[in-house]
Amino acid sequence: MPTPVEAFARIAAERGGVDPDDTEAVQTWYLESVPRLSPERLEELLEDLQSCEGDSTRRSLHPVYPRAAPLPGLETAPPVPLPLLAAGWRALLRRLVKAPSRR
Fold it and tell me: What is the pTM of this model?
């Protein structure tokens, strides 16, 4: 199981003095401060995170998307193919509309 997000926040508070309830501050700490850690401190941080792997979540966190990640819109989404049943009905309706009238 993955490491819960609250473990990342708790470890950022313990190791970086970050407010664990401030999601943006936690993200900023991991993005800006963690890459500058010494290899020894980075190894300790990774061990802390791995020790939390599979822990259960005790509180619900509001989802926050990273500032640098663009969210796709519908205009950039690839077209979705029609299900086979819908495509079959579409072909049947086309044939019925194009069929000569039997009056």
Answer: 0.54
Q: Distance from CA of residue 16 to its chain's centroid?
A: 24
pLDDT, tens digit (0-9, with 9 covering 90-100), for 25-64: 988 899 899 999 999 999 999 999 888 887 766 665 566 6
| Region for 98 from its dihedrals, namely left if φ exceeds 0, alpha if ψ lies in -120 to 50, beta otherwise | alpha
Angle in degrees, CA 11, 17, 18, rounded to 5? 75
Please indicate, yes or no, if residue 3 is contained in any of the structural domains. yes
State the residue range of the domain holding 52.
1-58
82 within domain boundaries: no
